[in-house]
Design brief:
Belongs to the TRAFAC class YlqF/YawG GTPase family. RsgA subfamily. InterPro entries: G_CP_dom (IPR030378), P-loop_NTPase (IPR027417), Ribosome_biogen_GTPase_RsgA (IPR004881), RsgA_GTPase_dom (IPR010914). This is Small ribosomal subunit biogenesis GTPase RsgA. By secondary structure, the protein is an alpha/beta fold. It folds into three domains: about 80 residues, Nucleic acid-binding proteins (OB fold (Dihydrolipoamide Acetyltransferase, E2P), Beta Barrel); about 160 residues, Rossmann fold (3-Layer(aba) Sandwich), CATH 3.40.50; about 60 residues, Ribonucleotide Reductase Protein R1, domain 1 (Orthogonal Bundle). It contains eight helices and 13 strands. The protein has a six-stranded mixed sheet with strand order 10-9-8-11-13-12, with helices on both faces. Strands 1-2-3-5-4 form a five-stranded mixed β-barrel. Strands 6-7 form a two-stranded antiparallel sheet.
């Protein structure tokens, strides 16, 4: 059981009463992972930040990467020089994506997050199709999605952009146009960053993630850079994920720009921003309608009438096909792991027993 003093200290890095501790927690030091490097981790115990190493079992090559500590995790440390991450406490929300490459592997972006701030710049970065992909990943995480349109001060028609965004987003998603350099403008985000709460900032390079972090901090802590004039792309100023405690009492995780957003295979498109398409499909004459040339297809009828946008439906089909592929990859990976854990009974037998039937 942690003392009131320890709990008050840990609250600075987002600790909440909902975190469950093991019975032997008194033998360890609680902390939160704030930076992950190739050769170790940096954690914060509410007073100090310091470097630690993972326990040997976290270094096994056969271990699923999602079972290793990640930025945002609450951990228990075994004292030593250096201290070791001995216990990984249960996560309440995890934002992840499938890693780039042909081999299926899930990559953690951040753990124990309450809100995901999706930043899109109004200087040429805004992309409804990419926003749909972000939404699919976030809805599978269990965290709240908040869309933040940066560089709103440089756009002439915010109302028109808000109309475009409304066509992509479900009605429960909140959108905030802001000037990331203006403390008064970004004050609308404070509600997601109260004591005990953690938000992660995601978006392409150059949208203003580090600028927003600096403004919320009130100091120039994160390095920033300008974008290319020809395509509004950034130069990857942020190169690693970092959790930062904010003056408001909450925590913010800044992340590098993400060029690729692959689905993990656990998303549910029908439960999110494409629920209306699923509702239309339920009205088709045939239950297995492919929405091509079948008679009585409600989806095709909606496309022809203009009720359903062609580009949006094409995006849905692309994400649906990718989701099916990734779900198959995930299932195959889980099957391989299950088979690897099943011991070969013959290995435990004596030679005379193994070959007695010959």
């Amino acid at each position: 059981m942690l003392t009131p003093e320890t709990l008050a200290r840990l609250a600075i890095v987002g600790w909440s009463d909902a975190i469950n501790l093991p019975d032997d927690a008194a033998d360890y030091l609680p902390a939160r992972v704030i930076i992950q490097h190739r050769n170790g981790y940096v954690v914060h115990d509410g007073e100090n930040e310091f470097t630690v190493q993972p326990a040997p079992r976290f270094l096994k090559r056969s271990l699923d990467p999602t079972e290793r500590p990640a930025v945002g995790d609450f951990v228990l440390l075994k004292p030593g020089k250096p201290p070791l991450i001995e216990v990984l406490l249960p996560r309440h929300a995890t934002l992840s994506r499938a890693a780039a490459g042909e081999r299926y592997q899930r990559q953690l972006i951040a753990t124990n997050v309450d809100s995901v701030l999706v930043l899109m710049g109004l200087d040429g970065d805004f992309n409804p199709r990419r926003l749909e992909r972000y939404l699919a990943l976030i809805q599978a995480s269990g965290a709240q999605c908040v869309v933040v349109l940066t560089k709103a001060d440089s756009h002439e028609d915010i109302d028109a952009v808000m109309t475009d965004v409304a066509e992509v987003l479900p009605p429960d998603i909140i959108v905030h146009p802001v000037n990331a350099k203006d403390a008064q403008s970004v004050a609308v985000l404070h509600r997601y960053l109260g004591p005990g709460r953690t938000a992660v900032v995601v978006g392409s390079s150059g949208v203003g993630k580090s600028t927003l972090t600096n403004t919320l901090l009130g100091v120039q802590r994160m390095a920033t850079n300008s974008v290319r004039q020809n395509d509004s792309r950034g130069r990857h100023t942020t190169t690693f994920r970092a959790l930062i405690a904010l003056p408001q009492g909450g925590c913010l995780i800044d992340t590098p720009g993400m060029r690729e957003l692959k689905l993990t295979g656990e998303e549910d498109l029908q439960a999110g921003q494409f629920a209306d398409i699923d509702s239309l499909a339920m009205q088709c004459r045939f239950g297995d309608c492919a929405h091509q040339s079948e008679p009585g297809c409600a989806v095709r009828a909606a496309l022809q009438s203009g009720e359903l946008d062609e580009e949006r439906f094409a995006s849905y089909q692309k994400l649906r096909d990718e989701l099916q592929t990734q779900a198959s990859n995930l299932e195959a990976q889980l099957k391989r792991k299950s088979e690897a854990k099943t011991p070969n009974k013959a290995l435990g037998k004596r030679p005379s027993e193994k070959y007695s039937g010959r």
